[in-house]
From TrEMBL:
EC number in record: 5.3.1.1
SUPFAM superfamilies: Triosephosphate isomerase (TIM)
A Pfam family hit: TIM
Record has Cytoplasm as a keyword: yes
Chief localisation class: cytoplasm
Functional summary from the UniProt entry: Involved in the gluconeogenesis. Catalyzes stereospecifically the conversion of dihydroxyacetone phosphate (DHAP) to D-glyceraldehyde-3-phosphate (G3P).
Gene3D superfamilies: Aldolase class I (3.20.20.70)
GO MF, any single term: triose-phosphate isomerase activity
Pathway terms, separated by semicolons: Carbohydrate biosynthesis; gluconeogenesis; Carbohydrate metabolism; erythritol degradation; Carbohydrate degradation; glycolysis; D-glyceraldehyde 3-phosphate from glycerone phosphate: step 1/1
Designated name of the protein: Triosephosphate isomerase
Organism for this UniProt entry: Qipengyuania soli
Alphabetic keyword roster: Cytoplasm, Gluconeogenesis, Glycolysis, Isomerase
Subunit text: Homodimer.
Length: 253
């Protein structure tokens, strides 16, 4: 089974240089919880500055362009992220799919490009409430993954999946532990079939959607949950570290 629980903060479109003190506090405190792998994905504008501050935590980005370079105004290539100090990139987040019409095909191309640039990838998936209520959540998520997953057999440790039910993002609602476990088991079975069990075992499956200090321990104790992708609660060191503590306790239990 893959290593330590992975707790990743996604700052989304939040953060100016004034937030560097939060990143610094997270980094310093993370050194006390070595059983947990802690990472932050600030906006592009802060990647290099947070990277320079960080001694312990991993720094990543929230998106990249599928191309290597060229005339794409406003876009950022994976190699440029790596140059700025990023070690991973979040791809296929539901907010990118909704706000920018990202398709699984495009996300697949971005993944290939990110891996080529030496980055780790956190591939997001998740269903809407309508899809869940219609009983199609599992089929929908597995279809998303089948279309987006990279055809690699080699750097499995560089792939992480994040299951984020869209209706749980930023709403205060979380999926039940049973629903999370069932979906994570379905994703694990897909990874087993796609890459073989040895490779699949190296891929962590994170849960995302209103993870907070109060629910972190329960969620992170759920079978097949290898960590959390945290939005709102990652914006303050205090609440994010509360989740890190929950992960550490879940790991020790
Ligand atoms: O990337 C993070 C997720 O979208 C979860 O966001 P949230 O913790 O604010 O619900």
């Amino acid at each position: 089974m893959a290593e330590r629980p992975y707790i990743v903060g996604n700052w989304k479109m939040n953060g100016t240089r004034a937030m560097l003190s939060e990143a610094r506090a997270i980094d310093r405190a993370a050194q006390r919880y070595m059983k947990v792998e802690v990472a932050l994905a600030p906006p592009y504008t802060l990647i290099h500055a947070v990277h320079r501050e960080a001694e312990q935590i991993g720094i990543g980005a929230q998106d990249c362009h599928p191309g290597a370079e060229g005339a794409h105004t406003g876009d950022i290539a994976a190699s440029m992220l790596a140059d700025a100090g990023a070690k991973f990139v979040i791809l296929g987040h539901s907010e990118r799919r909704q706000d920018h019409g990202e398709t699984n095909k495009l996300i697949n191309a971005k993944i290939e490009s990110a891996l080529e640039a030496g980055l780790r990838v956190i591939l997001c998936c998740g269903e809407t409430l309508e899809t869940r209520d219609a009983g199609d959540a599992e089929d929908f998520v597995l279809r998303q993954l089948k279309s987006a997953l990279p055809a690699f057999g080699d750097p499995a440790e560089r792939l992480t999946i994040a299951y984020e039910p869209i209706w749980a993002i930023g709403t205060g609602r979380t999926a039940t532990a049973q629903d999370i476990e069932a979906m994570h088991r379905a994703i694990r079975a897909l990874l087993d079939n796609t890459y073989g069990e040895d490779v699949s075992a190296q891929v962590r499956i994170l849960y995302g959607g209103s993870v907070k200090p109060e629910n972190a321990r329960e969620i992170l104790s759920t079978p097949e949950v290898g960590g959390a992708l945290v939005g709102g609660a990652s914006l303050s060191a205090e609440s994010f570290l509360g989740i890190v503590v929950g992960a550490s306790e879940a790991e020790e239990a």
